[in-house]
């Protein structure tokens, strides 16, 4: 005689596995999370500020093209 299967539990387990697979596809498709995006944006802002500060202190020379 075969194994007795509770159909309700089997459906729920299959739905859970399908949802997990779809979540994995979406993570791969849409990339980074909110925290990673915020970190990258903060780093870019620091880089822009650093570049602006360095450019502001630059001494222009007459023989240097603009």
What is the distance, rounded to the nearest whole angstrom, between the alpha carbons of the first and last residues? 88 Å
DSSP E strands, number: 0
What general form does the structure show? rod-shaped
Query: Radius of gyration over alpha carbons?
Result: 28 Å
Helix residue percentage: over 70%
The largest sheet, given as strand count, sense and whether it forms a barrel, is: none
Question: Strand-and-helix sequence, N→C?
Answer: HH
Strand content: under 5%
Keywords:
single chain, mainly alpha, rod-shaped
How would you describe what is shown here?
- The protein has 66 residues and is mostly helical.
- The chain is 71% helix and 0% strand.
- The radius of gyration is 28 Å and the shape is rod-shaped.
A few lines on this structure:
With 66 residues, this protein is mainly α.
Any chance you could write out the topology, listing elements then pairs?
Elements: H1 7-30, H2 34-56
